[in-house]
């Protein structure tokens, strides 16, 4: 049990000395890890150095999320559009993914992290797929933070895929067309076992979604920042969560 002397009461809430309300944490945070290339460019380094530095930021953010008791963390690592990049950059990103999983998986497992992915991973290099499957298998019974990595993920691709699979079920008389509703549709998305994000974070100064979780973010709160992903640290995450806690989520209703 944490010492209560660092906490004070704000109404019914428990707020710590940083201003963080531990009773009102977002259940699911989704992050568009953007700005690696510009971070490197600013330092006269190759873009891949930016991606490497991005992995360091990732390590810290997973650690902090886990410590705070966040339940789901979705990380946009590679989009369906990122294949447009030069082959060398794409392979460097795939290599980095393999390296990261190999190096970190036992520590993640020790910390009770459960690895999941969204996106069509069948298009990734075999070695990357193997590493992903073994990480998922190793951590499948963990019940701590779910780290959900978006790889070859595109929300439009996900929606089209869901539509095709639902059509197939209708054709096979498994689903009646009139039964299709938002809940059923959600079950056909990559995120079927994951609640919608409460908070979406995009660093790097871009104010766009870039084909990330279009269905799931209908009522998410957004937090944008000019900071490049490799510089995104514990403080940034806590600031984003505190800002989130000061939002009034109405979901179309009134207070
Ligand atoms: C995000 O950083 C990493 C991936 C998209 C894989 P970028 O590589 O997009 O960095 P910028 O946006 O060019 O700075
Ligand atoms: C979004 O970043 C994808 C990831 C972070 C993986 P991009 O850098 O690909 O997005 P755009 O091109 O700026 O929209
Ligand atoms: Mg980018």
Automatic annotation (TrEMBL):
Binding-site residues for substrate, renumbered to this chain: 35-39, 47, 51, 79-81, 83, 85, 202, 208-210
Record-listed E.C. numbers: 2.5.1.-
UniProt cross-references to InterPro entries, sorted A to Z: UPP_synth-like, UPP_synth-like_CS, UPP_synth-like_sf
Names of required cofactors: Mg(2+)
Function description: Catalyzes the condensation of isopentenyl diphosphate (IPP) with allylic pyrophosphates generating different type of terpenoids.
GO cellular component: cytosol
Record-level Gene Ontology MF annotations: ditrans,polycis-undecaprenyl-diphosphate synthase [(2E,6E)-farnesyl-diphosphate specific] activity; magnesium ion binding; manganese ion binding
The protein's name: Isoprenyl transferase
